Amino acid sequence: MLDQPILVIGSTGKTGSRIATALNERGFPIRHGSRNADIPFDWEKPETWERALEGVSSVYVSYFPDLAFPGATQKIEALTKVAVKARVKRLVLLSGRGETHAQNCENIVKSCGLEYTLIRASWFAQNFSEGYLRDPVLDGKIALPARNVREPIIDVNDIADVAVAALTEERHSGQLYEVTGPRLMSFDKAAAELSATIGRPVRYIPITFDEFHASMTEIGGEFIADVFTGICRETLDGRNEYLGDGVQRALNRKPRDFADFCRVAAASGTWSEAA
Ligand SMILES: NC(=O)c1ccc[n+]([C@@H]2O[C@H](COP(=O)([O-])OP(=O)(O)OC[C@H]3O[C@@H](n4cnc5c(N)ncnc54)[C@H](OP(=O)(O)O)[C@@H]3O)[C@@H](O)[C@H]2O)c1
Question: Furthest-apart CA pair in the chain: how many Å?
Fold first, then answer.
């Protein structure tokens, strides 16, 4: 099994890139799951899946753009079937907390017949440094329909560490790891910590779901706005206001703190260009 590659779907993304790097550094053969890889993988082209999964021992699945998008459940189900046919041994799914569609996908993976690990993650800290909230941080205004809800924001490096363990060690088989950061934080507090680290004002602006929908429509159109507003309605209603113990259970250590994320991201220069 060790000479067979591990397929990392989303290997150029926030979690996948870190997982691919870590596996590579440890000497595990990897196959990049990217539309631009030598053997391309495209969620929109199911005809690419069989070749991408051929001869693979394990697969990390991060779905793009989000498991809440229409069609995601069907694609996850179809992918598991191709993986079973290709005799893949183990599948590690990145899922989201408190999301109905994500949990439907988890159930598909649980019953597909492969060894599996489910990583159910809270909000990513790297949304602020590499994702759709980077520009708002540079702008000094983070507008979200989150009122004063507190979220245990997680550093994606911890998700990557859990995924690497799950892909390479036996003991994570059949586990559901609910992975979160170590602190419940309001978005006001997150903005204040970003501001203190960056040395420029960054404010959290609570907005209504309708205002959020209108701003998302401007950026990505009505369909994208509908899906993302739906995700916010589901996940920012207080249901996720508790800490998970997935990082501790999988890795026997505490998760990284948001303050450490801020320091590392600032040092990388990601927020420097507006200076
Ligand atoms: N953001 C959060 O706070 C959060 C919280 C919990 C769970 N999640 C889950 O995290 C997952 C995303 O993971 P991530 O943030 O690590 O990924 P990501 O950074 O959003 O991007 C993953 C990669 O997807 C690839 N991609 C785009 N379109 C594709 C297509 N049609 N077929 C195949 N690949 C495609 C791109 O690679 P190429 O251009 O190289 O193809 C991109 O680099 C989502 O399913 C979401 O539900 C997110």
Answer: 53
